[in-house]
Structure prediction request, 138 residues.
Amino acid sequence: MVRSTGEQVSEAGSFFSRWWAKQHGRQYAITAITSGSSGLLLVASVFHLLVLADHPDWGEYTGLSITGALVFLLTFLVAFPEFLRFRGHIATLEEIKEIQSTSELRRRKADGILAAEALGAGHLEQWNAFLESRGIRR
Prediction:
């Protein structure tokens, strides 16, 4: 495989990229859970830093809270954009399915195929069934 810069890239890839590719179809759920939980834990860590850091019983956890806030922030910054990308694919499919005009549907068919393929988890089968129900061949 060759990158756009002309560099050769190993087909094997890193451990994380191979694992992520194997999760096709579950990636939306993984990013939703990861971004949601890291966002919630980030809020809890910031709450601790703002409110409980000076409390006599909770003050000893301030270092842990700072470390947690940094880890959760980094996790959130990695997971949330991917979540938004998958959410955009779902919004695209929903928007296209609301189209009544057959000609407009044919124009947007390629967008729907790309979105369904990116989502995996049966979205492509549902998309094909939708196209067939509207009388449009794949």
